[in-house]
Every structure is written in C-alpha cells, then in structure tokens.
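sanity check this record:

:::
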Amino acid sequence: MNKLKDRKDLKNQIDTLRAQGKKIAFTNGCFDILHVGHVRYLNEARKTADVLVLALNTDASVRAIKGEKRPVVSERERAEVLAALECVDYLTLFDEPTPLNLIRLLKPDVLIKGGDWPEEKVVGRDDVLSWGGRVVLIDEVAGKSTTNIVDKILNLYAQDLHEQNKP
C-alpha cells in the first residue's frame, strides 16, 4: 500500500474509512531527522484512533519555519522513512504555513500535537472541537529533538576539525 497520498486521494480514502466507522487522527510536523522522540510521539498518536494521518511539511515550509539550513533530509526521504513506520497509516505533504486547510478538508476526529503546545494555540483546535472531535497533547521526550541532534554532531566534529587545522 502506498501511504503517501495527494489531498484528493487522501480525502477519498478518509471518507471511505469514516463510512466504515473508523476514527481518524491527524498530526503534522517537519520530522526532519527521525529520532526516538518522533517514534514515541507517533506511536502514542496512533493509539488515539483507528487511523493516523501525518501531514508532513514540505522542504519549503520547513525552511520558512526553521531557517535556510533546514531541512537536513529532503521531503521525499522524510516521507519514505515515515511511511515505513507501522503506526503511520497515511501521509500527505503540505506547503502552507499551517495545516489548517488539510484539517478542514479531512475533518479528523482527533487532532494531535506535542505537549509543548498550549491547547488553545493548536492550529485547527476550534474547527475540530466544532464538529465533535477532540485535541490530544502528547508529551515530548525530554532532550530529544532534531536541533539537539544537529548541535551534538556539530560539537562532536568541531573539535576534530579544529585539531586537523592546527599547524
């Protein structure tokens, strides 16, 4: 099964699943360098419904959020890695500043975000609550982030580079 769907195909698939009585969960993010924090988050997200849809920021939208040096891993590679996870049922890419249009299109039963977000600031919260859905915040794994991984790599290799450049 190809988990990566364009919006039209994803909408049709979600409508079919909903007609079968399935509950749909939705989350989104950059997921630049996949790490244990991401995996635990997605596994917990999957437990909230029958189907987990992940909206993945495109490279352009990651740059807009994180800066010109990101993403480290391209959108197609990130999508392939995430699709390999059993807990992710469907993926779609989005280029907008927020996933609000996708949330409104798919009308998930559960909207999921990391616990570092105050619930009232979660994009799509009011929409999801208006159609009887709920918002779930999942705690982050302390100290686990792509930024921390990049910083660790830079720090580890900066000393080596410094040593190599000594006269």
Notes: The first strand starts at residue 24 and ends at 29.
